[in-house]
Write a structure and sequence with these properties.
alpha+beta, 251 residues, five-stranded mixed sheet, eight-stranded antiparallel β-barrel
């Protein structure tokens, strides 16, 4: 998902705890912030002009120059609650720091980008595993303590990786409609080669820390449409395309 600068959490105040000190940040606008360091050799309060570049997935590059000549670039990751800071001091010393953020005051407008990039994560996982049969993607996309609620599949990431490595070339997954809210994603799809007949499945995932942490599924053998009854198909291969087009159009 591309991220707009409109998603930058203007008005938010937060404490960032680095290993050596803590800094309080107040995001005044997309062009200005106030930082305050209360203790230590860097203690001061200053208002600085900033440039904000959205990088996607609730990640922003925020850079500024201070009155002392020091330059700072923050990678503010609002999905994981971390700030990665890179500072060059007036004397030329270069500092790298990472610290968790604690929100003290919420942004003026609530923006939650998690559903958008969580949907992309689920589509990538389902196609990587059940189209490309890429077992290596399991470690990249699934949490180490991944929980599986299908009683016919063993627990854990290693078990899933073994299943994917042993999949038949006949296995093929088609993603369909997908809905997401907060840390949960449900996707409607069709899988061939998993059973004797094609199956229509709804997979429900819980996402934690940018990875798939928990999974539930419901599978049903696909039943052909009966023309005499005027029925509709259980799965339409074009439904995902129509949804993507509607979202792009802002519908």
């Amino acid at each position: 998902m591309s991220m707009s600068i409109d998603h930058f959490p203007v008005g938010q105040e937060m404490d960032v705890t680095y290993p050596a000190f803590q800094v309080h940040l107040r995001l005044e606008s997309t062009t200005q912030l106030v930082f305050a360091i209360s203790e230590g050799p860097y203690a001061r309060t200053e208002t600085v002009d900033i440039e904000v570049i959205p990088l996607g997935n609730s990640l922003f590059a925020v850079s500024w120059q201070e009155a002392s000549g020091a330059t700072v670039t923050n990678l503010q990751d609002y999905d994981r609650g971390l700030v990665h800071s890179f500072a060059t001091l007036p004397g030329g010393e270069f500092i790298r720091m990472t610290g968790p953020m604690t929100v003290i005051r919420a942004a003026n407008a609530a923006v939650d980008a998690r559903p958008h990039h969580n949907k992309a994560l689920v589509v990538e996982a389902m196609t990587a595993l059940f189209q490309r049969r890429d077992a290596a993607a399991v470690e990249r996309l699934y949490a180490p303590d991944y929980v599986q609620h299908n009683p016919n599949i063993p627990q854990g990431r290693d078990a899933l990786q073994s299943i994917v490595a042993g999949l038949s070339p006949d296995v093929w997954y088609e993603p369909g409609l997908i809905v997401a809210e907060a840390d949960f994603v449900a996707i409607h799809g069709r899988i061939r080669g998993w059973a004797e007949t094609p199956q229509v499945v709804v997979d429900l995932f819980r996402i934690e820390g940018g990875k798939l942490a928990e999974h539930w599924d419901v599978l049903q053998d696909e039943v052909p449409v009966t023309a005499a009854l005027g029925g509709r198909p259980m799965f339409d291969p074009e439904e995902r395309l129509r949804q993507v087009q509607a979202e792009a159009a802002g519908v």
